[in-house]
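Hello, quick one for you while I still have it in my head. No rush at all, and the record is pasted right below.
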Amino acid sequence: MNLAVSARALTKTFQNGGVHALRGVDLDIRYGEMTLLVGPSGCGKTTLLCVIAGLLDKTDGEVTMLGQRIADQSARDRVAFRRRHVGFVFQQFNLLPALTAAENVAVPLIAAGHKREPAVKQGVELLARLGMAERATALPRELSGGQQQRVALARAVIHQPSLIICDEPTSALDAVTGQQVMQLLTEVSLREDRAVVVVTHDSRIFDFADTIAHMEDGRVERVVPHGAPARRVATPT
């Protein structure tokens, strides 16, 4: 089975045992697919993402990401591994306000040791693919919410990561812009050697999913193949 992520009996407890955020999660995330994690607020979706990515330590169970047992790595090695292999798209964009759009996109490359000028040039080229060529030199405060999300998306994929993790990427966007962002995410992210995981409350984007994992009270209650109907009929922008 071609798995990007495999979690078995995964648990996470906070506050000296007082809060059980994950209660024995089993989940497989496959290469070449977009998996949505859905469920009510507080059910453990974001905690699960953070444990998968090694941002939080698990309490018990096993998780393998891209063939690696992240829990066995040192904190320094985890950071280096994520820098090379994982891209993040955050709900609040987290763009650096003093950098232009292209410079923000180039940050992962510069952090990985690439020279600044060619890295920024790659950022400009990727933004052009996302319809942002004329906004490459704009600062974040000069961009709309949808434009900022495109910059965040470009930043997440510019270093060709194998796993892309998105936390509520459309929650602050109107319906049309949200659909555009999901289509762009699909076009620049999904390949046979890459997997995309999206935490969302936004039922408007469910049709972009190959698989939907429904969470409740710290558990994955069911995993439903969805077939990505929106992607089958969407026209590239």
Observations:
- Helices lie at 45-52, 75-85, 101-111, 116-129, 145-157, 175-189, 229-233.
- Residues 131 and 237 are 8 Å apart (CA to CA).
- Confidence is low (pLDDT under 50) at residues 233-237.
